[in-house]
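Help!! Second protein's tokens look totally different from the first
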Amino acid sequence: METTIGQQPIDRLKLSERARESIRERIISGQFSMGEKLTESGLARLLGVSKSPVREALLQLEREGLIVLSANRTTHVFSMGASEIAELGELRQILESEAMRLACLRNPGPLGQALVAIVARMEQALSRDQSEAYKLLDQEFHRAIFEHCGNSYVRANFRMLSFRVQALRNRLSMDPELNARSLKEHQGIRDLVLSGRHDEALALLQSHICETTTNYLDLVAEPDADKAGAVPAIRVATEEMERFSRASLEAVGADPATVEAVTRALMHASTLGVDTHGFRLLPHYLKALSGGRVNRAPSPRITAGTGGACVLDADNAHGALAAYEAVGIAVKRAREFGLGAVAIRGSSHFGAAGAYATAIAEQGMMGLAFCNSDAFVRLHGGAERFHGTNPIAAAAPAEEGPPWLLDMATSAIPFNRVMLSRSLGLPLPESVASDAQGVNVTDPAEVEMLAPLGGALFGYKGAGLAGLSEILSSAFSDAPLSAELLPMVSDDMSTPRGLGAFVMALDPEAFAGTAVFRAVMSRYLDAIRGSEVAADQRVMAPGDREWEEAENRRKTGIKLDETTVTDLGAFAGEHGVDPLRTISVGS
């Protein structure tokens, strides 16, 4: 017996094939969401067929991994958590690497010709802003590798894998920068295959798959947070965030040097993913500048010093201005004396210490930065606030790539992590914060003090490091101790806090020489990244995670929590600043 669709006779087998292709296309394109419940009757109505071919189509799609049929006869579109996406990435690495190796061995000429034709169409699609066409060509590029590998079993496994990969690919935000980077990588693989540099082509393919997997993981990261009850993050383009920061600081009367320094420091933190010290702090800084706690037009000056060392009185400047001023002085003195050290007093909160160590490293020197802050961290075994979070930062340049970068609080977590967790509605990790009696708590609303770095058994190490930062920040500049400072969070926004800080630059040329230093740093970084890795782990050099995040955020935007966006929106309305333009929520 025959059934008709659009007046064309189609037998039952063809109906099920057509239903399968139609449902598959809707899943891959994103018309059906991951995890969405599907019913046979609903699909039958949608496709204009009976339930029988739909049922057969769903069974076939289950074998393809696109449909999940449960024991209670309910049907859902597949969904993937972070661990499953990571495993899919591993499988892609295994299959595509072998397919590339075989294709380059058996059919290098035809493979190169196929990639040339596909990349040309990819270039054309991007030039016409045809992102949907580009994504299909992306899939075709990878299919070509399997088509030329000369192994039917490898090809068959790719087909089953490719449906989920394409479904994930179609759910990615295809912004121009991401597309351009993707195209560049595909062009690179094509060129390496054509030139016979097959090992390099394989290495670039593996790197490309790794980055793609990271993008897929980003895709599910915030929905997973939603399930935990967290408020999703909001993204803002880096250029827009910088524009809003400058306009807001100017609106409260900050001088150009302060506007530049504060924006630069906040951009460093938010771009590298150090959100606790990024633009979440801008509303607080604006209040401090408006209220007079921070001098809007300071005149920092050197009050003492000899040789490579000096004291900088910051004139109650914003901490970022004071620290960047100290960086300039330290670098200049290091070029003359081999090292430059600047003790700062009369400052304020300076954000991420790593910003200043990095600024020194960008000048070809090793940079160190320290500061103290109001007491909020108990001693090891203590039950009262004693030290501040007292960060330590260091950065060292290498021959290639970004610097080795360490930026750490000497507390188990920074205080701003508590504030961010309150904003996002997230619990804190175990044993990082305490209530008023020194008892550890995970609810950020109950936190009265932080624990020192090192946990219950080794907190004395963190307390000792906090003391090191305290001595450098206070004793060398005659700045107040942590316990003597006014609190950062206070109704009093008119009284300066007078924080201390310490910045040091070491010029490698004054020691074994710049070339030697950079070469050793490169060997050291290579050794770290090439060291043996435990199961399901990844070894990273200090700063690697942050530099990777910076690359990602330049493409996808800076993350802000809803509370910060609301506060900045209120400020913009009150001060006539063009409102902050966001990209998206939860992506």
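Here's the second one for comparison:
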Amino acid sequence: MAEEAFARAVDDGLKLTKRLVLPGGGGLPPPRPPQGMDRDDPAAVHGAWLQHLLPAAPMAYAVVVDPGAVDSPDVPSYQPHVYGRLDPPALIPLQMREVDLRVDCVAGGCATAEVALRARWWVHCVTRSRACHCRVVVPMGHQGSILGAEVTVGKRSYNTHVIDTEDNSAVKISMPESGGLLKQELFSLTIPQVGGGEDIFATIRWSQKLLYDNGQFSVEVPFRFPQFVNPLPKVFMKKEKIQLTVNSGVSKEVILQGTSHPLKEKGRQSEKLSFLHEAAVENWSTKDFTFTYTVYSGDLSGRVLVKPSTLRDYDDRDMFCLFLLPGRNEDRKVFRKAVVYIIDTSGSMQGKPLESVKNAMATALSDLVQGDFFNIIAFNDELHSFSSCLEQVNDKTIENAIQWMDLNFVAQGGTDIMHPLSEAMTLLSNSHGALPQIYLVTDGSVDDERNICHTVKTQLVNRGPKSPRVSTFGLGSYCNHYFLRMLASIGKGHYAAAFDTGSIEGRMVQWFQKASNTIVSNISIDAIKHIQEFEVDSEYIPDVSAKYPLCVSGRYHGKLPETLIAKGHLADMSEISIELKVHHVKDIPLDKLLAKQQMDLLTAKAWLSENKELERKVVKLSIHNSLPSEYTRMVLLQTSLDKIDPAQQAKNKPIKQSSPDERSAMPLRGLTLGFGDVTATRENLTTGFGDIKPHEQFEIFEKAVGCCSRVADCFCCMCFIKACSKMNDQCAVVMMQACAALACLGCFECCSELCCGGAN
């Protein structure tokens, strides 16, 4: 719903641009629909056009309420004046004059890229005598998290800050919300009252996860600009710049596999490579920036990166990051699996969410091989099992399971998670020598989540090394993602989530593949032999998957040796030892790269234990790294600048700031997940996804209410009273008689109901 409303507002804005006259004369060329549309289906064409209008690169929009303000700031068009106001406002994409993209990738550690984008937009669509709000929208990459934003407009500067929610003296929230997440991985800021013809200088920073597939790391940054943000080439020179650095984190050779833009290698130093693309272009980039590379590793390998704590750190112990690359050894066998899929089929899963889960389940079942065992549990208020025991994988059982899902995956009832988990534990008491695994998929939150964690942990500890691995997947915003993350951490499994219906199937398939391709289990580190204190952030060290590197962070006190040994078990139950060299990093911001992962795990622990001390650690970590958390909030602070030098303004560096008392803060919304919504789960609300439309009957009801309210407004307004005062006597008599007749009919119906019970 939010995406469609946004696209419609952009569509309205593009229609308004027909009023503009370019500096060279003539109007703006109308935007062309993307190629490949089926023109025989108008509805499909319109839907594809709206999808095309969603931002696929950092964009800025003028928020237009008064269409009369739309005009070229330099060359007035002398268009006829337009009366009225737009509700909702139209969004006119602003022309971009400059863009600079910087991407820093670290393959080792947690496989993360830190992205910084600097751009300059021109308010080309509002006359200089008027002003409007402007919205900056930035689509972030895979699992993107906003790190900060700085915007300068004229003599005003805006910067994001993270503040403690309990510290009311930090700043004064005196202005309405100014942005946040329109949806997951789509960040927006609203800058108030930008004058026509002014430039907007913005720097946005975010982090995102690297993709990993068959030994290849890749980064993909949204960088597809539409044609209508290009200024005239004869009037404005467009300069495009892309900087890329790659730090492998290991003493292995980095091999370039492919890139979307022409990059020149500028330097190669030890484990660090740098590339540059800089050119004057006629049109901005029409494709995402992608870069793919491999870190040569024939077999399992890894490293331990360590960094001393800082004065502002929440913990005085030193930091470490242990990672293992699965390598590309095709002879490495994957564990046989005994899997129980636990799928939420409550009423809130109706429609596309449950259909997407069913499709992902069909893919997961088809990936099972001979020797695996499985079962499926569909749960709501009740529990429905595909079989009373684990079924051996073959073509017949897989076909029967898919048919069973078609019949039993029906969205109805409430949510009860403990019962199916206990049933799955019972089924896996005999796993036939395979690695027992539980996959839990839910979109709801329940009251006994802490009890579930404690109960599952007790059962897993009692079973020892052969305990089931518990992996969790959260759908939408109504489930408690910290509960699911904690449950996966306790169960040595993997956690993942989807926050819009379009990404459910793809992310679930990736999650299944990552969790089900175990090549090393029961990992242990011999660090405790050398130092007294060595603590990992997660409850336990997960198993190594063939589909993604393992990354474990934590804290230690003491001096680590030059080499640590990681031990585990292979699929044939033989023991493997992996040598991990300890590397003291200087040029890798390990604390910032691991901050998001550490903060999420600490928040999950704080939620489970209800520990205030852990909450304060999260607050310190959040403020230190400018990352919003459940106990902090991100705000946009406005600062007035006394003087602006044009050269300094281009660099987005204010010269002199006003006093803190003059700064006003605007909160940013939707940047945290919360701890679930039990009430929404009980009521089976389906709006945990922002892109699900309400039911048709509610739409009809809303339209009817809107119509009736407008009629009522007409009969209750001052205009109607004035009209009655000018009515002649004959009309007044007729109206009184009509009202009396209606009243008599109403009284007759009421009396018949009371006296005769409604009988004729």
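Reply: Different proteins will give different token patterns, so don't panic. The two ends are 49 Å apart (CA to CA).
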